[in-house]
Design brief:
86 residues, extended, mainly alpha, 4 helices
């Protein structure tokens, strides 16, 4: 059995809490790798189009913490839940 680090457990719990109070539009989220592949087959592509892929490994290491907290606080205030915002 693989033991998850405490940071993983904390992140999972925080994610569950945030999802209850934040409604974020995830326009660019995919469920699995076959969904975007199916979507790509429906595209009409001409000679001027270019397809790029981005490797987002370790992307979250670069997220600015202060800005993230401010965005979350703004969203909480927007939903006007004083108990959660404070």
């Amino acid at each position: 059995m693989i033991e998850m680090p405490p940071s993983y457990k904390a992140a999972k719990k925080l994610n569950r809490i945030l999802q209850q109070y934040l409604s974020l539009d995830n326009h660019y989220t995919t469920v699995n790798s076959s969904t975007p592949a199916q979507d790509l087959t429906k595209l009409s592509i001409n000679k001027k189009h270019r397809l790029i892929t981005l490797d987002i490994k370790d992307l979250y290491v670069n997220i600015p913490i202060t800005e993230t907290i401010n965005i979350a606080r703004t969203q909480f205030l927007k939903h006007n839940d004083p108990e959660i915002t404070t």
